[in-house]
Design goal:
- This protein is α/β, with parallel strands linked by helices and about 220 residues long.
- It has 2 domains: about 140 residues, Flavodoxin domain (Rossmann fold), CATH 3.40.50; about 60 residues, no CATH class.
- It has 5 helices and 8 strands; from the N terminus they run H-E-H-E-H-E-E-H-H-E-E-E-E.
- A hairpin with a 6-residue loop joins strand 7 and strand 8.
- The radius of gyration is 19 Å and the shape is globular.
- The relative contact order is 0.12.
């Protein structure tokens, strides 16, 4: 990815993150991870197959953030020691990606018999994977650019029945777009109400944020 013009990538090793295991969700939010996801326009998730699915640690860290993922591109890479090439990993991740608000690209990378593809020191042994990954990378970059434009330039308030009050960016003062709403179940204080997080982005400086509001549960479809 870093070889592509205008692209900067950063590897996050979730096994190295200091995550508590006696709690879950945003209660264990790790600042460095949250900041990295907030700053990113797209993600690549590389996951090994574990009992026909993905590792529990990956779900644990994914659940630690909510609003940081909304309307961002994600490409999935499944890895396995066997011949199925991580296909079941990708299939297991798809509904999770949707729930988090991520937008999956339609190209995946599947690596089977990983011991024959990479050496123990990480060297790639099969150059065919470089060619196979080209469509994946180009689609991820395209989707990341399109979604960033959407977050910063297109507001869902244009279709609202009532005019919404502009929310200025806390960093530069530019009015922020309102590009998504997400229900936060854990924040509700009664069964008759829900808490909705309005995801916002700034076209001036690229900052992102959310504003919360309570709404009657009957408002939801």
């Amino acid at each position: 990815l870093n070889r592509r013009a205008g692209v900067r990538s950063h590897v996050i090793d979730i096994a190295a993150l200091p995550l508590p295991v006696d709690d879950a969700g945003e209660a264990i939010k790790q600042a460095a991870y949250s900041e990295a996801i907030s700053a990113a326009d797209g993600l690549v998730i590389v996951a090994p197959e574990y009992n026909h699915s993905f590792p529990g640690l990956l779900k644990h860290i994914l659940d630690s953030c909510l609003n940081e993922y909304i309307h961002k591109a994600v490409g999935l890479v499944g890895v396995s020691a066997g011949p199925f090439a991580g296909i079941r990993v990708v299939q297991s991740l798809l509904p999770v990606m949707r729930e988090l608000g991520l937008v999956t690209i339609f190209w995946d990378i599947n690596i089977g018999q990983v011991g024959k593809v990479f050496a123990e020191d990480g060297r790639l042994l099969d150059d065919a994977f470089v060619r196979r990954s080209d469509r994946f990378i180009r689609e991820l970059i395209w989707m990341s650019k399109v979604l960033r434009h959407g977050r910063e330039q297109v507001t869902i308030d244009e279709e609202a029945t009532e005019a919404a009050k502009p929310v200025p960016c806390p960093a530069c003062g530019t009015p922020m777009t309102h590009h998504a709403d997400k229900v936060i179940p854990a924040a509700a204080t009664s069964e008759s109400e829900v808490v909705i997080a309005a995801a916002r982005a700034c076209s001036g400086c690229g900052a992102q944020g959310v504003t919360l509001r309570s709404a009657p549960a009957a408002e939801l479809p």
